[in-house]
Amino acid sequence: MTFLKTIDSKFFHSEIPYKPMGKYVHFLTIRITESYPLFQTDAELNKARVKAGIKDKTTISRLSMFKRKQSTPERLVGRELLRNYGLMTAKECEYNVDFAMDNPDCIIYGFAIGDSGSEKSKVVVDTAFSITAFDESHETFTLNAPYENGTMASKGENGSKPGEVTSRINQQDHIKPQVFFPSIVTLKDPTEASFLYVFNNIMRTRHYGAQTTRTGRVRNELIGVIFADGEITSNLRWTQSIYDVMKDNKTIKSPEPLDEEDVIAAALSAINSLMAEEFIVHTDYIGETFTPLLNDVKALIGSETGIKAILQQADTEAKNYATKHISKKKTAAKAVSQ
After folding, report:
1. Which range among 160-169, 183-192, 206-215, 278-287 shows the weakest confidence by mean pLDDT?
2. Which of 84, 110, 132, 338 has the most CB atoms around it within 10 Å of its CB?
3. What pLDDT shows up at residue 336?
4. Inter-residue contact 180 to 259 (CB < 8 Å)
5. For residues 81 and 156, which has the higher predicted lDDT (pLDDT)?
6. Within a domain: 260
7. Does residue 41 lie within any of the structural domains?
8. Strands 282-286 and 44-45
9. What's the confidence (pLDDT) of residue 97?
C-alpha cells in the first residue's frame, strides 16, 4: 500500500528487513519548551560542559535531554493510538512489563524481555542539548503545599502551632519556556508505514520529562527529513553550528529568550552547511522542499481514515516480521535451554 504522493518509494523497503540494509531517514526536529519541564537525574537537571560553538571555543554548560527522555514519550503516544484503534490491548502488551513482541511499537522501537527475547530499536535518538547556556535556560522555584484556608501556614494539626509555616517546602530547578533543543531522530531501514508511524509520534507528542501530567509541555517543530545511506551529524555538532550562525547574525540577545524564527533560520542554514561536509549519499527535504511532504503527511494523519490505514499497515508489517524472525529466536532460545 502506498500512502505518500510527494516522495519516491525507493527510499522505503517493501517489508521490515531482518538485517541492516543501509537505508536511513533522519527527522530534523527542534524541541521547544512551552512550560517548565524537568529533564533530570537524581533530582538535578541534566547538563553538560561543552564548547559553545564549532567556531566559538568558549566552554559553557548546556541543558541535556537524554535519549529516553525523548524516545519514551513518543513511543507511548504510538502505543496509545494502537490501543485507541483496536490494534493492541493493555493486557497483551504492557510497556516495560510484558511486551507482545509483534506490534509496531515493539518491532520499531525495540524491546528486551530477559530470556524470552529482544529486538533492537530501529529508532536512534541521541542526547539533545539546549542552544542557550544552562544559567540562561533554567529557573529555581520554591515548592510548598497550601492548606484549605488558602495559606501556606499550618492550622495547628500534627503538633504544629497555628500560623506556623510548615517544613513542606522544597526547591526545584525547572527549564524555562522557549528553550530550544535541536534533535535528530533516525529511523533505520524504514518502510513507508514505519516512516509515517515515527513521523506521527514525533508530531503528536506534547509532554516530555518528569511530572508529565502537570508540566513538561514541549512542541516539536519538524523542519525537514533526510534520506541517506548512513548516519549524519550529531545533535551536539548541529547545536554548536546553530549557535555560531546565531552569534554571527547577532540574534542571541542574552538574557532575552531566543526568537523561534531566528532559531529555525539558523537551524536550516547550519544543517545545510553540515550536510555539504558529509561523505554519504543523501536526499534532503529541508525548508521549501519539505513543505509538500509535510502537507502530504498532515493530510494523512489528520484524518481517522488515514491514521487508521497507516496503523493497520504498520501492524501487518510488524506481525509479518515477528512471525518470520521473532518466533525463530524464541524457538532457538528454547532449544538451547533444553
Report:
1. 160-169
2. 132
3. 38
4. no
5. 81
6. yes
7. yes
8. unpaired
9. 85
Count of domains forming the chain? 1
Query: For residues 161 and 256, which has the higher predicted lDDT (pLDDT)?
Result: 256
Percentage of the chain exceeding pLDDT 90 = 70
Task: Return the amino acid letter for 213.
Answer: T
The amino acid present at 261, given as its one-letter code, is E
Polymer length in residues for the chain: 338
Residue 115 near residue 57 (C-beta atoms within 8 A): no
Range of the domain at 225: 9-337
Contact 36, 198 (CB under 8 A): no
Give the list of residues 6+ apart from residue 314 with CB closer than 8 angstroms, or none: 104, 108, 191, 193, 194, 196, 197
Q: CA distances (Å), 267 to each of 60, 125, 133, in order?
A: 20, 18, 17
Cα–Cα distance measured from residue 119 to residue 314, given in angstroms and rounded to the nearest whole number: 16
Structural domain contains residue 291: yes
Structural domain includes residue 4: no
pLDDT band at 216 (very low <50, low <70, confident <90, very high): confident
